[in-house]
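Data card: per-record layout.
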Amino acid sequence: MQPPLVSWLRDVDRDAVASVGGKNASLGEMIQRLGAQGIRVPDGFAVTAAAYRMFLTEGGLEETIRGHIADLQGGAPWGRVGAAIRRAILRVDLPDDLAQLIGESYRELSSRYGRDDVDVAVRSSATAEDLPEASFAGQQETFLNVKGEDDLLETVVRCFASLFTDRAIAYREEGGFAHLDVAVSVGVQKMVRSDRAGAGVAFTLDTDTGFPDVVTIDAAWGLGESVVSGMVNPDTYLVFKPLLEDDAYRPILTKQLGAKDRKVVYAAGASERTRTVHTSEQERRSYVLADDEILLLGRWAAAIERHYGRPMDIEWAKDGETDQLFVVQARPETVHSTRGPGLRTYRLTETGTVLTTGVAVGDAIATGAAVRLDSPEAADRFPDGGVLVTGMTDPDWVPIMRRAAAIVTDHGGRTAHAAIVSRELGLPAVVGTGDATEAIADGQEVTVSCAEGAEGRVYEGRLDFERRDLDVEALPRTRTRIMLNIASPAAAFRWWRLPARGIGLARVEFIINNQVGIHPLALARFDDVDDPQVRARIAERTRGYRDRAEYFVERLAHGVAQIAASQHPEPVIVRLSDFKTNEYADLLGGTQFEPEEANPMMGFRGASRYYSDHYRPGFALECQALRRVREEIGLDNVKVMVPFVRTVEEADRVLEVLADNGLQRGRNGLEIYMMVEVPANVTLADRFAERFDGFSIGSNDLTQLELGVDRDSELLAAMFDERNEAVTTRIAELLDKASVSGTPVGICGQAPSDFPEFAAFLVRGGIDSISLNPDSVIGVLERVAEVERALDEEQS
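The structure for this 796-residue chain is written out next.
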């Protein structure tokens, strides 16, 4: 039976890859199987692989192509071979019956949309494309805003020819695919008028770390080409998948505003289909998607992932004429989903001068000589192992990228072409620097580090670093709960593979300092800010917020939520802000609202701030953010911890203020912990235990106050030692008292990480949990397991 030359997308499914290619098969699958769930996919049809082979046969092209491929095997360069094949294909017209069938289908599609010449996207879809083990994405051409039969027929031939672009030939050569065994289908799909709205991509995992419980959405104004190509730095949204189906919650973990300085729109003239224009100031300062749209895309992405049974890479678009969202592509994610359970970590062992920073892609480190290139045509200048420095990349750059040690670009975000390919190749990349091609000299020796959190850094010179490979599944299990200390929300997902059971210390002040940067009272009492320059800077940062205090609440809530999501449903203990007055004063607007103290370490800090009439309005914002995390976003694994409580009476006052702000102990399962940092906390542990659900030992402050040694003093550094008998006696006393009251005790200080014998002392004393910096987890875990085994042997 003659295979069809044209198939409507609604008539094909994922079993039709050999006929219509991976891209078109996936579109048909979603139309058939997911339309009932509300997922919208634009209508269209596919010119099949059978049509492509018919075109080659009737045009006498097979022998021509075979001859050029033989030249390639004989050593002819890809570029020359590809150009010759494309020229041969473009000289041949479509067979009349095929052209007629395509024209009839186009007229039918136009009729379905009530138009004479509907605007369509014409995409190449290779028959080996979008397989889990081989991603051909971006190897062939896509043409947007194609109108009219003549234009469509010409574009179909151009899609056929794009099977032999230089990058596609190189990809097949390196992947071991026979060139004539791969065919191309052409998808013809109604354009979504995202040129009048926005578009982007969505991945059903965190694209940097592979953390599986989020949907990562990138969005920019105009057609999606600007995001996929890396032309712009897009908005980025993170949505927490486990809570998406619960209508009681709105699990948006974070929203990051991108620069979005350009967009791709329809061109007015006949000579070009699209053009790139600058966005307006209002567009640059506005999110592309509303919260309801973010959540809808998150639900769609999660549904698509469930249907395919694997992480997915999805392209979406919003129609500016109807305000409807559409999915326009979906393919398997091919980087993190194919990795094993092992964990590879990198760490710089020396520091250097930072040349530029941007978005970190991956978590690796690489060194090499920087090579600045403006065009992939200069490939002969690029040595194996060089660091590619350029404005942005597209698929033509892939042969060079495969030879690079690392990649650095001026433009792009986490889902730009450079970022996607770098992940596929396992290379560190720093994208969206804004100035790499100016800041880095051609030939300069550099170190590209993506191992220091969300910000990637390019250092001058070749710095030393270490790499460690871990088999996580082979690590021992312990009765003592091993938890993490996390400060940076952006770094939280990096450690999801570690065998930790929650977060014992999440520092609110780090989030305030790095993601808010403004003193809370300068927002809560903005009208009282005296300095006009400070007022102007605050107004600039909070532009777009009708309520300036909401800037603080939203950013803090998103930071805490990202940390909490990384370990959900395990407990995440969030310590309330513990800035000292000098540290608060360093925040924008802070000088006016902070007293000067001779000894801030012992002054107006921790619990004493929360109930003071002076600071209450600022603390209320903090409480509002934590309530949002628990009750609106839905991350009720968050527990609250109060630092530096000096007296029982102060504990009562803080608990009262927390309750007044909607954080009442026991309400909706809220547990409130207390830091044990003041010797009085140990002395009166039984009374504090009546008021709190758990204790966490802050060994730094406890040592400081027990020994009378300023922990920041270089002159007294030799005397500061958590292993001092006075300190360990205090801790042992606390563990004994807590055992009697049934109050769980953890520790979140540095000592267990630094001193194996200290960790052993804690385990023997019956501590419930040890919270560690991520790079210390493996060593301490192994030590704890040894001590537990020894205790078992002693008791047997």
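Known properties of this structure: The longest helix spans residues 777-795. The CA atoms of residues 172 and 179 lie 7 Å apart.

See the next section for split statistics.
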